[in-house]
Design goal:
It holds the Pfam family PGM_PMM_I. Keywords: Isomerase, Magnesium, Metal-binding, Phosphoprotein. With about 525 residues, the chain is an alpha/beta fold. Helix content is about 40%, strand content about 15%. Strand 7 (about 260-265) and strand 8 form a beta hairpin. It is globular and about 75 Å long.
Length: about 525
């Protein structure tokens, strides 16, 4: 049970019976209400995001006090879910689970096993896993012996599948220099070390990976002065990352489902390559390979973003790459489902959480098309291997890192070349405390306020005063606060716009005057 991705304070017998009769469960100790954007630590039979209808059921059970949990469970089974359960009553529940390196793991596993034993469920304990590895296992088990078999449901199967795909895409290409990977002192450290054993070195036509911050023996070291969040929020490399100018570095988060890249330029300046950059890098490569494979007219490729994506990235994808962009509400579950509507759907949040989805039609088309020349064959092979290299079940930092590396090798790009594909618009994110966040309601993928009345009109008027201005206000999911995002042509303008919009939020979010 990978500790950072759960709706559970403590394991409770929440078992979803689904197509393949197997679910992955992860558990942790997150507070409630559940933070927005937090993904549930279990999913569908495909190993991806839980269907939205089931989120409500899980939330009811997760928030029920212990003494009321049995009653809440009984109500769901006998009232809300009675028809669905009747259809599945003859199928045994089959559960897989794993855990990260936190000290709470053994007690959580013990409680979970007790619950599953009481429910009479079949289960398999995979031991230490990254969250993405657990999602991978779920899909593998549920698709075995089908035309859609995802792979071998073992750690070795995970490593071999990824390494073989990496070798295929890397054929005839060279990676320039090593990449330093900060593993946030989380479970991704030992798992990356294991994967390296399956990868060819640079001298063998592969990659050299320098692993740092992989100490899993000290619980207090997890995410301390390291990891993707540290890099993203502090806008600097972890102190333990020692890299020269233009040397590639990336940081995973604690359970290895997010990754961000960065480097120091020739002047020593820190340069971040976040999830938006990883998304556009993937889109560039896949669009080029589709064109060389002669499949541009047969495959619809699109990119999914949230309102927080930098406007320059959106413009680059739409105007330079000529690919459609869909904007969804914040949260991986929204991006994942929107990406599934494309033949090849690319999605990443700015924090580095994301993946690429290939539809059944895309997989069939790529793998059944017969090449007419060597160039087309290489493109088809690269697309086919990308299907295997990318963990389509959920964001996977290790998988995403390897994919970024092969794309950079194909393009012969340095980090600076990657950075210069477009120039981010200066932006600012401001937190504003309000009396009641519930009055701030949005539409248009959270980009416009519909309540309080009159607030959006004021924001729209302010935005019109700034070159390339864009701003929106969105209520926090966990506290009485509203987050204001603003971007504009210059840093000064972005900061000024953010301040003015924050003032609007403060005005409309102030406590009512008790005197009437």
């Amino acid at each position: 049970m990978s500790g950072s991705t759960s709706v559970f304070n403590q394991p409770k017998p929440v078992v979803k019976l689904d197509q393949g009769l197997l679910d992955g469960i992860t558990a942790g100790i997150q507070p409630y209400p559940i933070p927005e954007g937090r993904k549930y630590g279990y999913g569908t039979a495909g190993g991806d995001m839980l269907e939205q209808s089931w989120e409500g059921y899980a939330t009811v059970l997760a928030n029920a006090p212990n003494e009321e949990m049995a009653k809440a469970y009984e109500n769901l089974v006998n009232e809300t879910l009675v028809d669905e359960i009747r259809q599945l009553q003859d199928r045994p529940a089959n559960i897989v689970f794993g855990r990260d390196t936190r000290a709470s793991g053994p007690s959580l596993i013990k409680a979970l096993k007790a619950a599953l034993d009481a429910a009479g469920a079949k289960y398999h304990d995979y031991g230490y896993l990254t969250t993405p590895q657990l999602h991978y296992m779920v899909r593998c088990v549920n698709t075995q012996n089908t035309p859609y078999a995802f792979g071998e449901a073992t750690e070795e199967g995970y490593y071999r599948k990824m390494a073989n795909a990496f070798k295929t895409i890397m054929y005839g290409r060279k990676i320039n220099g090593p990449v330093t990977v900060d593993c946030a002192n989380g479970v991704g450290g030992p798992k990356l070390q294991e994967l390296i054993k399956y990868l060819p070195t640079s001298a063998e036509g592969g990659i050299d990976i320098k692993v740092v911050n992989d100490d899993v023996l000290k619980p207090e070291a997890l995410n301390f002065d390291c990891g993707a969040d540290y890099v993203k929020t502090k806008q600097k490399a972890p102190p333990t990352v020692k890299a020269g100018p233009n040397e590639r570095c990336c940081s995973l988060d604690g359970d290895a489902d997010r990754v961000v890249y960065y480097f120091n330029d020739s002047n020593g300046g820190f340069r971040l390559l976040d999830g938006d950059r990883i998304a556009t890098l993937g889109a560039v490569f896949l669009a080029e390979m589709a064109e060389k494979a002669g499949l541009s007219d047969k495959l619809k490729i699109g990119l999914v973003q949230t309102a927080y994506a930098n406007g320059a990235s959106t413009e680059y994808v739409e105007k330079v790459l000529k690919l459609p962009v869909v904007v969804t509400a914040t949260g991986v579950k929204h991006l994942h489902h929107a990406a599934a509507r494309f033949d090849i759907g690319v999605y990443f949040e700015a924090n580095g959480h994301g993946t690429i989805l290939f539809s059944d039609n895309a997989t069939k088309t790529i793998r059944e098309t017969q090449p007419k020349n060597p160039g087309q064959k290489h493109a088809l092979d690269s697309l086919s291997a990308s299907i295997d290299l990318i963990n389509q079940t959920v964001g996977d930092a290790i998988s995403d890192m390897l994919f970024a590396e092969v794309v950079l090798a194909h393009k012969a790009w340095t980090p600076e070349n990657w950075l210069n594909t477009y120039i981010d618009l200066p932006n600012r994110l401001v937190r504003v405390e309000v009396h009641d966040r519930a009055i701030f309601k949005t539409e248009d993928a959270e980009r416009k306020l519909v309540s309080p009345k009159g607030a959006q009109e004021e924001i729209t008027r302010l935005v019109s005063n700034y070159t390339k201005g864009r701003s929106f206000a969105r209520a926090s999911g966990t506290e009485d606060a509203v987050r204001v995002y603003a971007e504009a042509y210059s840093k000064h303008e972005a900061e000024a716009l953010a301040k003015h919009v924050a003032d609007v939020v403060k005005k409309f979010g102030a406590a009512p005057d008790p005197r009437g």
